[in-house]
Amino acid sequence: MQRDVNGGRSYHSPRRAEQAAATRTAVVSAARELFLSEGYSGTTIAAVAARAHVAVDTVYAAVGRKPALLREVVETSISGTDHAVPARERDYVVRIREATGVRAKILIYADAVAQIQGRLGPVYLALREAASTDQDCRELWETISSRRAANMRAFVADLRVTGELRTDLSDDEMADIVWSMNGPEHWALLVHERGWTSERFGSWLADAWTRILTVAG
Fold this sequence. Notes:
Elements: E1 2-3, E2 9-10, H1 14-38, H2 45-52, H3 56-62, H4 66-79, H5 91-98, H6 102-131, H7 135-160, H8 171-181, H9 184-193, H10 198-213
């Protein structure tokens, strides 16, 4: 038990915190389902509330307006958890930094991309479509895309220290190559349209990057 700044008593309830987290998770899950089935413009806060079995005001309190809902759906799809996780703190990024040898690093990342796209791909493609007509979606698309490009430069810089990368391609060129191939469009073509498994896509991606980026090829 703690006293507040006015001398009164304030209480921290683990149970209340758990309930709030569960409500937030339910709201984000409902929003994801509706964004994918109805599209961004066709999804309303009222529909999200109904799907999550909460009041409309609860949606606003738990996450926020529709743009905030979409951002949270994207972020949790990337992290695979119920909250956003900064890139450097993600498990696979830590393992990449700890791995020795360019091939091991590439394999870890390719496997992570295959897993992430299973969650993120459909959401990202829906976001891209909505970005053509909605300003909030366009801003989110540009933010996520730019952040992904910056993360690829950090990834290539980590690969470069192994001494195993080609020298006829700049780090920026390599980052652009990885950025273009780890996007949802590439995943959708091979997994959704050609019927590849996630595992096959990850293995192919690792092999392709190894051939394109490394000295031995």
